[in-house]
């Protein structure tokens, strides 16, 4: 089969998928948005469990409790689609390692600097996705991708910028926030590669989560100084929701989207996650949204609309 990339999307580095029009991308776009909302609930749930469970322990439970659901999803998906590959590819294993780095350095950033600073630096992940894809994979980004990314960055800075503080004493935490962004960028690219190699979204998410759970278990043993187990039913329910909604739902839907959408565009999900987190905190925790936050959210949506792919990248 001859597979000639369309020039517009070859530049954006989209993964393999059948040919079609923008309408074919709607399920993947819906999965991306739904995954962002699910991951956006994560800060709210972490706030619920944080009085009882340490940060590294909550990260471990987030992944470990999702494994049975992800395994069941994998078996179901592969039973319905026998053509999917059932192997352990290096890209799927690497996805688990870099996601471990993402979670570890995210929690270190939260401990070492303000939440606003950690969030601000973590939202630079799409910059690294575009940079790594351009320099490492020779994928020159489309002009609209760069414009959309710039608008999203301005929106993200507007969303959290009023709370960002410059403090030399917190430079190590700020550094960890940037490292978080680097690992998250690598996660997008490795999941995209695994999906392009013929693995289903469920297998990629399950394999990566197994690796992540093992790494985080070691981190809990070495680094955690706070309680590991929840003491109340509310905290236990929060951990379960964190695992099922934010991880199995959020990361799983992201893997689905990366089977059809380029990593450069899909990485903008981190901005959608920030918008969803702000809205959910307003609804569930009563944290009011100011005019700047509303403006930042609007800019993020405008940037994503600008960067969205118009067609699938392959012609059969």
From TrEMBL:
<keyword id="KW-0812">Transmembrane</keyword>
<feature type="transmembrane region" description="Helical">
    <location>
        <begin position="115"/>
        <end position="134"/>
    </location>
</feature>
<feature type="transmembrane region" description="Helical">
    <location>
        <begin position="28"/>
        <end position="50"/>
    </location>
</feature>
<feature type="transmembrane region" description="Helical">
    <location>
        <begin position="177"/>
        <end position="194"/>
    </location>
</feature>
<feature type="domain" description="EamA">
    <location>
        <begin position="28"/>
        <end position="155"/>
    </location>
</feature>
<keyword id="KW-0472">Membrane</keyword>
<feature type="transmembrane region" description="Helical">
    <location>
        <begin position="56"/>
        <end position="74"/>
    </location>
</feature>
<dbReference type="Pfam" id="PF00892">
    <property type="entry name" value="EamA"/>
</dbReference>
<feature type="transmembrane region" description="Helical">
    <location>
        <begin position="235"/>
        <end position="258"/>
    </location>
</feature>
<feature type="transmembrane region" description="Helical">
    <location>
        <begin position="146"/>
        <end position="165"/>
    </location>
</feature>
<feature type="transmembrane region" description="Helical">
    <location>
        <begin position="86"/>
        <end position="109"/>
    </location>
</feature>
<feature type="transmembrane region" description="Helical">
    <location>
        <begin position="265"/>
        <end position="284"/>
    </location>
</feature>
<dbReference type="InterPro" id="IPR037185">
    <property type="entry name" value="EmrE-like"/>
</dbReference>
<dbReference type="InterPro" id="IPR000620">
    <property type="entry name" value="EamA_dom"/>
</dbReference>
<protein>
    <submittedName>
        <fullName>DMT family transporter</fullName>
    </submittedName>
</protein>
<feature type="transmembrane region" description="Helical">
    <location>
        <begin position="201"/>
        <end position="223"/>
    </location>
</feature>
<feature type="transmembrane region" description="Helical">
    <location>
        <begin position="290"/>
        <end position="307"/>
    </location>
</feature>
<dbReference type="GO" id="GO:0016020">
    <property type="term" value="C:membrane"/>
</dbReference>
<keyword id="KW-1133">Transmembrane helix</keyword>
<feature type="domain" description="EamA">
    <location>
        <begin position="178"/>
        <end position="305"/>
    </location>
</feature>
